[in-house]
Each structure stands twice: as structure tokens, then as C-alpha cells.
Design goal:
The protein is mainly alpha-helical. Helices cover about 70% and strands about 0% of the residues. Keywords: Nucleus, Transport.
């Protein structure tokens, strides 16, 4: 398709036709052309023309309205880049209601969404007559007979979407705009709703004749749209809906309708389409009540008949629970006997689903009402006295008239005996898909707003927590009746154990769980009878719920004994039991009171069973959950996991290969392997053949897994490099080219990348510096110049460079130091460092209104001076080479460059806080005395060496501060000197820590005494200047007497 197509109606139709085809190349070309046209004037108006042209194929009109809707999203706002011009907006707006009689309901729906988005932005300023126009159409159509039903339906749908869009606004202006028009809209829609309800209830009451079903369906559709609109208006159109008479009247009508609608829906003679719409009315009313309880809790409680509404829903909960509990027990017992339950008809399945939804809505209403009393939503909005009084009144209404002790106890009883019982469908899922049942059951806890079993558990826990004094005694009594091996009602006992587990936090003082564990649970898990696999699963969950609350440390071995038994493969320990036990074990191990001595004897059978279970499982999520438990155990065992490490690692390799592109599972494998590597230490090197390919796959951008696996791969990489002794295997060193590009990702992983890189520098300094030194330095230079590094990351980066300098000097001496400094100069790294120092110096030369400020943070500047200090301490001559290079680049004498560098260095010394860094700077500045004569005038005398000897006052101040700070007067030693490292038994023992220890022991900062170091260089400087007297005349006459006096007290010379 031509890239330079002009925007004309015929060409637009051609592109729309291409965009509607199934040819991928045409679709791609059309999308590209739409992208070019969407910023041109007139494009969106032409799209509207295409949509309004009913002679065009539906596919073209569909694509046109979709493109128009997307364009409104991107370009309708006044501040949008390339926004739609005002005259084009007016043209589009003027024709938005022309398609009010659209025949195709899909096109009408998309058009309604487009109108709603425009209305949100343009009402009321640019489109003030929107709502009056819609209400006029609705009023006219509703009084014009069946011939206008389509127009009425489409207009109501459009009104609903406009109101919904307005109600979703968070700005106060949007809310106020909707509230201003709500009374008028509410009146018209409520009146039409009442007429429709009266109409279709009359049809349902008088029986169905020819054509009456279609008529009832049409009227039901209209009333449903009215109800959905009224729901949004009542929620968002009034700040205090309980004070509005129209809402109060409608609320009373809704209460009556819920009762009558539920009665009507129970009829078996209703046509399916009528039954479906009637049930949607009931569920829509339930949504209205739930939204009010959440968003207008006070208004919900104070509106008339709210208590009757809640009692009505409670009756629905009881009725459904009675039928559910009876059916569940019957079907469950049938399945336990091995009998096949009868399949339900489609109508029966739909009825159950509807009753389930109604009962769920009832539970959500009770939760919201209880939360209003005990856990109200906080607000920072100012509340008037009337609002405060209404809130208190609402709380008192629910507290005294709804949640009475009798009601609370009855609610608990119904939940436990009806809704906690496993249903036939649960047992079917158990046998048909064990993994899906186990994982789905636990994950369903987060879906309590949509599933009745998790919601029942949430409601039960709320009641137990908030009404502990009322419910503790009846719960304990029920538990006492069932806490016996003799009770064989498996399904009911499972329900009771569920309740006791959920209420553990409230019952821990009333139940001796240690005794229950020994007298009941241990014998119970050994019963070999059909159906006891249900109790075995529940016991595993029950223990996990109580172990963090009240199971004593001496009783923990009983827990591990039960766990070991339940993980053993037997007919009753089916996959559900073993998988549930494995997942529940995590709570027992990953817990504060866990003691290794009580777990040790069970370690081997448990780990063996878990690894066998992983091999048996097929689903990724199930495998990951068990692998996570193995990881927790490995962490707890520490180095003790080495005995089982080979078996675990032997599983990880095939699992890695078998997961394909399932990155979540690969993440778990990498994390597990990292824990094992750290646990076994240097022995982990034997897994290098598996680790290296995993790391390569995880970080190679060409493999497509880097975005998913980078963090976990870096964790494993870091662990591996820590335990790898020198010399490192070549395949592991060959991974370095995959690590260096990760420096440019600029993500939260940068710190870990830098840690791994530093490990490589210490592990194989010659290989890293010779092969990749310049590349690393160039990446570091780029990171500095981008200016996005935080001080912490900058600190790590400069630390790595300092380590590079140190190891280069240790390994290669002066030549090695020259090499790495040359790389830092060539890459621009040191040039940037000196440039930042120059900028800071220039800023310090300014004062007053025109004062400048350095862009470099003080902490970062400290790290920069540490780098210069490290270079200088290794070789002051190399430092002068660096300064000379910068001076040449700037076109100034070396003395000038040394002047501002040293002025800034001495000036910054007071900002260096760490004693080690202060000593490093002190030693480096002192070594400059050794090369004093290498820079200066040609005529000898005082000029040569003035660049450093002329700063004797600064040097004396630094020496005095550091010597006094580090001097230990009691034993005559100096801090930061390790005299006997071989006697340090507590020093960490990983291979990397040993390498770091060796490097530290060779560091002059930890080897030499500052006082002796200064004395030696100062005496040499005096000798070079012709003796002490000549030195004093030349360089000390201008020094402050107090500074000289403080230094003299130290007795250095």
C-alpha cells in the first residue's frame, strides 16, 4: 500500500476494506496507514461518515467505529498532541445521535462507548444539551408504542454508557457535573422502570399467550437497562443518597421487588429467555445493594427497609445452604461408596448457579455490614456534625438490630454445617484433576468476591474475630463433639476441622491442640478406610493453620511424623493428599519456632518424598509450589543440605529442560540452585556444567528469556562466583561477555550486575583486565555520563574500579597499574572524574547571587577522590601521568591542573567520614612528597615542588587529624591494622571471602602505621630540600603556628 496516500473518502474506504480482510499483509498495511492518517485534520469525521453509511458492509462500519473510538481516546482532549480541531469536533458531535436507530447491536454498543467518552470530556461546556436530548428521545419513544422499541432500547443503552463513564470520573468537577443532572435523569428513568416492571409482571402473572413472550422479553430488556442506569445514578449522582426522597422511595420499591422477583424466578413454567432476564434483574439489584454497602455504608444502613433486605438475603443464604448441604452430603456419600451421581439437567445447573450467586451476594452484604461496625473505611474528608451523627446511628442500627448474638451464632452454624461441606463437584474435581483441584482450591482464597466457598470462609473469620466472646463456646462445643476417632461422619468432620483451622487465632486459648494432635490426629491419619483421604488432606491443612498459633516446640516432632506419613505413597495418600501435605509443610518449616533438632530425623524421608512428588506431578504451578517447599527446607538446613543436594540437583536439570518457555518455573529452579550452591560452598563447582548453560540462556538477549529470568540468574551467578575457587573453569569465565551488556539495562538489577562483575575481577583479575578491561571501563564511563546513577550504585561502581586498580598493581606491578589506568583514560572514565572535580572547584570559586553549584553529589565526590587516592598510593608517578593527560586535554600547564585538583582534594577531606577512607587519602597525599621535584620551575630553589610543598599547612592538618583519630593510646597500636589475621577463626570461609581477605591483608591501609609512613616521607622531603632548617625556611614559615604546634605534639619528627 502506498505510504503517501492522501486522505480522501474513497481511499479511506479502501483502507477500511483492507483492514477488515483476513490477509495479514493487508492488515499490517492498513494499520500503518491509519497511524499516518490519525493526526490529519478531517480523518475522524470521515470515519464517522463511514460508520453512518448503512449501505456499507458491517465489517467496514465496525472497523470505522472502532478507529473513531480509539481516536477519541487519544486525540479528543484539548491538551492532546495533534488533537482533533474544534470544527471537526463540532461536526462529529452534531451527528453522534443520528445512529440512534442502529439495527446491529454490536455496532450500537461500540457507538455508545464512543459517545460516552466524548460526553465525559465535553459535558456540560461543549455539549450542554446532551442529557435533555437523550431524555426527550426516551420520553417520546416510551410513549409511542412498540414501533419505537428499538429507538428506546438504543437510547437507554447510550444513556447508561454515558452515565457510567461520568460516574467513573475521579475529578470533583466530573462528579459535580453528574450530580447536577442526576435528579432529572433519575426521575425519567425511574418512572420508565416502574412502568416496565408493572408491564412485564402483569404479563407473567396472566400467563403467556401468542406474542406475549416476545413482548415480555422486550419490556424486561428495557427495565434491565433502566435498572443498570439507576444503579449508577444512585451511587454516584448523590453525595448523601439517604437524604433524597426519590432514592428512599425507590429503595422501598427495590426491597419489594427482590421479594417478588425471587418468588417469580422459582417458577418452573417461565420461558428460558424470560427466566434469564428476570434473574439478571435480581442480580443487578444485589449489585446495587453491595455497591451501596461498600461506597455509601452509612446511607445503606439508614435507607428504609435495609434490615428487611439483609434478612431477605440471609433467608436466601439459609435456604440455599440447606439445599446445598443436603445435596452435598448425599452426593458425597454416594461418591465415597463408589456410586456414580446422576447428572443434572442444564436448567438445574443454571438454577444452582443463580442461587449460588444470590447467596454469595448475601454474604458480601453481611461482610460489608459487619465491616462498617468493626472496621470502617477511613477518610480524610471533612465531615459535618450531621454526617457524624448519621454514621453513629447506622452503626447502632446494625449492631443492635442485625448482628444480635442469636444471629451471629446462627450464621456461624449455617456456614460451618452447610457451606464448609465438600460438594459433589469438589469430589469429582478431586478425582478427575488432582493437581488442578489442589492448586485451584488454595488459589481460590483470593477470589472470595466471586466464589461462595472462599467468601463463606472470609465471613466466618470476620465473625470469629469480631464476635469471639459469642462464638468461642459454641465452636469449642462442636469441636469437642467431633474431636474423636469414633466419629466417622467424614464430610461433617471435615467441615468442623475447617472451622477450627480458620478460627485458630481465636481458639488457641480454648483448645489444647498438642493433646488433640496426639490423641486424635495421629490415630486418625492411620485409619485405612474409604473416604479418609478427605480427612487426611484436611488434617494437613489444619496443622499448617495451627502451627504458627499454638503448637509447642516439643510437639513439633509429632507434626513431622504426621507429615512423613501423609507423604508416603499409599492408596489413601492419593495425589491430592500428598500435594496438599507438601504445600502445607512450608508453614511448619518457615516459622519462627522451627527447631532443626526436632526436624533432623525426618529430613531424609521428607526430602525423598518431596522429590519423588515433583517427578510425579505434571502441572508447572504444582511443581513450583513443591519446589518452593524444598527450597525453604534447604535454607533451614544450611550446609546440612549437602547430603541431599545431588538428588535435588539431579531433579533440577530435567525439570529445566522440560519446562520449555515457562519462565516462572525456570525462575524457581534458578532460585533453588542458588540456595544449594551457597549451602554446599566450593563443592558446588561440580555443577558448573549445568549452571553455565542455564546462566547463558537466562541472560543472552537473543534467547528471549532475559526479561523474565535476569534477576534469578544474577542471584545464581553471584552465588556461584562466591564459591568458585581460583583458577576458575574457563566456561565460567567465558560467561563474562554476557554479563557486561547487562550494565546498560539501567534496571533495578544493576547493583547485582556490579556485584557479579566485581567478583569476576577478584576471581580472575588478569583474564578480566587483559580481555575485557577497556570494554568494562567504557561501559562504566557511559553510566557516569548518563547521570542517572544513584549514590549507592555509584559507590559500587567506583569500588569495582578501585578493586581493578588494586589487583592490577598486585598482579602486574607498575606495568599492570599503567595498563589499567591507560584503559580508564582511554575510555574517558578518569576524564569524567577529573571533569567533575573541576566543575566542583569552579563552583567553589563563586559566591553571592551568582554562586554556582556542582552537579556531583558530595558522597559521589568522596568516591572519586578515593579512586585518585588509590592510584596515588600505588604509584604517585602514575597519578602525575593522569594529571598530565588532563592538563594536555585542557591545554594548560600541569602545575595549574595540579593546583585545582589538590585545592579541591584538601578542601573535600573534611567531608570524608569513614576512617578507612580518611587514612587512604592521607597516605596518598603523603606519597605526593616523593614526586615533589618532578613538577615545577627549571631554575631550582623553592619553585620546583611548590605544587605540593606549598600546601604544607593542609598536609599538616590532614596528618594531625588522621594520626589522632587512629591512635590507640592504651596499647600503642593503630586502628585498621590486622596484626594476626590467621587467628581470626570467625572470618567467613567462602572462596570469594578468602580472596577478599587476602586482598585486604595486602592493602597498605591495613598494613602500615600512618605516623611511621608520614615520618619517613617527611624526612625524605626535608633531605631533598637541603635539610630540616632549609625545609622550614622554604615551606613552613607561612604555616599557622597552631597547626604546627598540634602536629609537633604528636612527636612524628
Amino acid at each position: 500500500m502506498d505510504n503517501a496516500l492522501p486522505l480522501t473518502p474513497p481511499l479511506l474506504l479502501q483502507v477500511l476494506e483492507a483492514g477488515s480482510s483476513s490477509d495479514p499483509s493487508l492488515l499490517h498495511s492498513a494499520a500503518a496507514q491509519f497511524k499516518k492518517w490519525e493526526i490529519q485534520a478531517g480523518y475522524h469525521a470521515l470515519l464517522q461518515d463511514a460508520f453512518l453509511d448503512t449501505s456499507l458492509p458491517t465489517e467496514i462500519r465496525w472497523l470505522a467505529v472502532i478507529q473513531l473510538k480509539n481516536g477519541v481516546d487519544k486525540y479528543w482532549r484539548k491538551m492532546a498532541n495533534n488533537g482533533i480541531k474544534k470544527d471537526e469536533k463540532e461536526r462529529i458531535r452534531s451527528r453522534l445521535l443520528e445512529s440512534i436507530d442502529e439495527q446491529n447491536h454490536l455496532l450500537a454498543a461500540q457507538h455508545a462507548l464512543t459517545v460516552s467518552k466524548i460526553a465525559r470530556l465535553d459535558f456540560p461546556h461543549d455539549w450542554p444539551d446532551l442529557f435533555p436530548t437523550l431524555l426527550t428521545i426516551i420520553t417520546t419513544a416510551s410513549s409511542s408504542g412498540p414501533s419505537h422499541n428499538l429507538r428506546l432500547n438504543r437510547t437507554l443503552n447510550l444513556l447508561f454508557h454515558v452515565v457510567k463513564e461520568q460516574a467513573s470520573g475521579r475529578l470533583a468537577r466530573t462528579r459535580v457535573n453528574l450530580q447536577n443532572v442526576t435528579p432529572e435523569i433519575f426521575g425519567v428513568v425511574a418512572r420508565l422502570y416502574g412502568e416496565c416492571v408493572e408491564g412485564w409482571t402483569g404479563i407473567l402473572g396472566s400467563g403467556f399467550s401468542s406474542g406475549s413472550v416476545e413482548q415480555a422479553v422486550e419490556v424486561l430488556g428495557v427495565s434491565l437497562l433502566c435498572l443498570k442506569t439507576l444503579r449508577r445514578l444512585a451511587l454516584s449522582g448523590y453525595e448523601f443518597p439517604n437524604r433524597v426522597e426519590e432514592v428512599r422511595q425507590m429503595w422501598t420499591a427495590f426491597r419489594q421487588q427482590v421479594t417478588s422477583f425471587l418468588t417469580l424466578s422459582s417458577s418452573t413454567t417461565l420461558p428460558p429467555q424470560v427466566q434469564k432476564l428476570l434473574r439478571r434483574h435480581i442480580l443487578q439489584l444485589g449489585k446495587l445493594f453491595i455497591d451501596f454497602s461498600n461506597l455509601h455504608a452509612t446511607a445503606f444502613a439508614l435507607l428504609p427497609d435495609t434490615l428487611e433486605i439483609l434478612r431477605l438475603y440471609w433467608e436466601a443464604i439459609e435456604a440455599y445452604g440447606a439445599e446445598l448441604g443436603q445435596t452435598a452430603i448425599q452426593k458425597g456419600e454416594q461418591m465415597l461408596r463408589g456410586e456414580t451421581a446422576e447428572e443434572e439437567s442444564e436448567e438445574e445447573v443454571e438454577r444452582w448457579a443463580f442461587m449460588d450467586r444470590v447467596a454469595l451476594q448475601g454474604m458480601l452484604l453481611l461482610r460489608g455490614s459487619a465491616r462498617m461496625i468493626h472496621n470502617p473505611v477511613g477518610t480524610i474528608k471533612y465531615r459535618h456534625q450531621q454526617e457524624k451523627e448519621e454514621t453513629q446511628l447506622a452503626v447502632n442500627v446494625f449492631k443492635t438490630q442485625l448482628f444480635t448474638p442469636e444471629m451471629v451464632r446462627r450464621c456461624m452454624e449455617v456456614l460451618v454445617t452447610r457451606y464448609f461441606v465438600l460438594k459433589g463437584s469438589d469430589l469429582e474435581a478431586w478425582s478427575e484433576d488432582p493437581e488442578g483441584f489442589t492448586v485451584g482450591w488454595e488459589d481460590a482464597t483470593e477470589s472470595w468476591e466471586f466464589l461462595i466457598r472462599p467468601c463463606a470462609e472470609k465471613l466466618f473469620m470476620d465473625l470469629v474475630n469480631w464476635y469471639k466472646d459469642i462464638l468461642t463456646e459454641p465452636l469449642v462445643n462442636v469441636f469437642s463433639n467431633f474431636a474423636s476417632v469414633e466419629v466417622t461422619d467424614i464430610l461433617t468432620k471435615d467441615a468442623v476441622y475447617t472451622a477450627v483451622g480458620l478460627a485458630a487465632a481465636a481458639l488457641h486459648d480454648s483448645i489444647n491442640f498438642d493433646q488433640f494432635l496426639e490423641s486424635t490426629l495421629i490415630p486418625e491419619v492411620q485409619i485405612e478406610k474409604p473416604g479418609y483421604n478427605i480427612l487426611r488432606r484436611r488434617i494437613a491443612i489444619l496443622i499448617a493453620q495451627w502451627v504458627t498459633v499454638r503448637i509447642s516446640v516439643p510437639a513439633r516432632p509429632m507434626v513431622y511424623r504426621i507429615t512423613t506419613h501423609l507423604l508416603t505413597i499409599t492408596p489413601l495418600n492419593d495425589l491430592v493428599v500428598r500435594l496438599t501435605t507438601a504445600r502445607a509443610l512450608k508453614a511448619s518449616v518457615d516459622e519462627w519456632e522451627f527447631r532443626m533438632e526436632g526436624f533432623e530425623e525426618f529430613t531424609e524421608p521428607i526430602l525423598t518424598a518431596l522429590m519423588a512428588l515433583i517427578e510425579e506431578l505434571e502441572g508447572t504451578e504444582a511443581k513450583m509450589s513443591v519446589l518452593d517447599v524444598v527450597g525453604v527446607i534447604a535454607e533451614r538446613l544450611g550446609r546440612g543440605v549437602a547430603r541431599w543436594s545431588e538428588g535435588i540437583v539431579g531433579l533440577l536439570g530435567p525439570l529445566w529442560e522440560g519446562t520449555g518457555e515457562e519462565h516462572l518455573f525456570k525462575q524457581a529452579i534458578l532460585g533453588m540452585l542458588a540456595k544449594l550452591v551457597m549451602a554446599v560452598g566450593e563443592e558446588g563447582v561440580r555443577w558448573m556444567g549445568m549452571v553455565v548453560p542455564m546462566l547463558r540462556l537466562s541472560v543472552d538477549p537473543n534467547e528471549g528469556m532475559q526479561v523474565f529470568l535476569l534477576d534469578e540468574a544474577l542471584e545464581l551467578w553471584d552465588a556461584t562466583i562466591k564459591v568458585t575457587p581460583a583458577p576458575a573453569p574457563q566456561p565460567f569465565l567465558d560467561l563474562l561477555p554476557y554479563l557486561i551488556p547487562c550494565l546498560d539495562l539501567g534496571t533495578l538489577s544493576l547493583k547485582r550486575v556490579l556485584d557479579v562483575l566485581e567478583g569476576y575481577v577478584i576471581l580472575a583479575p588478569r583474564f578480566v583486565l587483559d580481555t575485557y578491561g577497556l570494554t568494562i571501563a567504557s561501559h562504566f564511563s557511559s553510566l557516569l555520563r548518563e547521570g542517572n546513577l544513584k549514590p549507592e550504585a555509584n559507590s559500587i561502581l567506583t569500588t569495582i574500579v578501585e578493586v581493578m586498580i588494586r589487583v592490577a598493581h598486585v598482579v602486574g606491578g607498575e606495568d599492570g597499574l599503567h595498563g589499567v589506568v591507560g584503559m580508564l583514560l582511554e575510555s574517558g572514565f578518569l576524564g569524567y572524574v577529573l571533569g567533575a572535580i573541576r566543575e566542583s572547584w569552579e563552583a567553589h570559586q563563586t559566591t553571592g547571587p551568582n554562586k554556582k553549584y556542582s552537579r556531583t553529589d558530595t558522597l559521589i565526590m568522596t568516591h572519586f577522590f578515593e579512586l585518585l587516592a588509590r592510584i596515588t598510593l600505588c604509584s604517585p608517578g602514575v597519578f602525575l601521568r593522569v594529571v598530565g593527560y588532563v592538563a594536555q586535554q585542557r591545554g594548560e600547564p600541569v602545575e595549574t591542573t595540579l593546583g585545582w585538583v589538590l585545592e579541591e582534594w584538601f578542601g573535600h577531606f573534611g567531608n570524608v567520614g569513614h576512617p578507612k577512607a580518611r587514612k587512604l587519602n592521607c597516605l596518598a597525599l603523603t606519597r605526593l612528597l616523593e614526586v615533589a621535584g618532578e613538577v615545577g620551575g627549571e631554575n631550582g630553589g623553592g619553585e620546583r615542588g611548590k605544587w605540593i610543598l606549598g600546601r604544607m599547612q593542609d598536609l599538616l592538618s590532614v596528618w594531625t587529624d588522621v594520626i589522632v583519630e587512629l591512635r590507640d593510646e592504651e596499647n600503642g597500636t593503630e586502628s585498621l591494622i590486622y596484626w594476626a589475621p590467621e587467628d581470626d577463626d570467625d572470618f567467613p570461609s567462602t572462596a570469594e571471602q578468602k580472596r577478599r581477605k587476602e586482598l585486604t591483608m595486602e592493602d597498605p591501609v591495613h598494613k602500615v602505621r600512618v605516623q611511621e609512613f608520614v615520618k619517613e616521607r617527611l624526612l625524605a622531603a626535608q633531605e631533598a630540600c637541603g635539610g630540616a632548617e632549609q625545609f622550614s625556611r622554604d615551606w613552613l614559615e607561612g604555616v599557622d603556628g597552631d597547626v604546627l604546634g598540634e602536629f609537633a605534639k604528636l612527636g612524628v619528627v
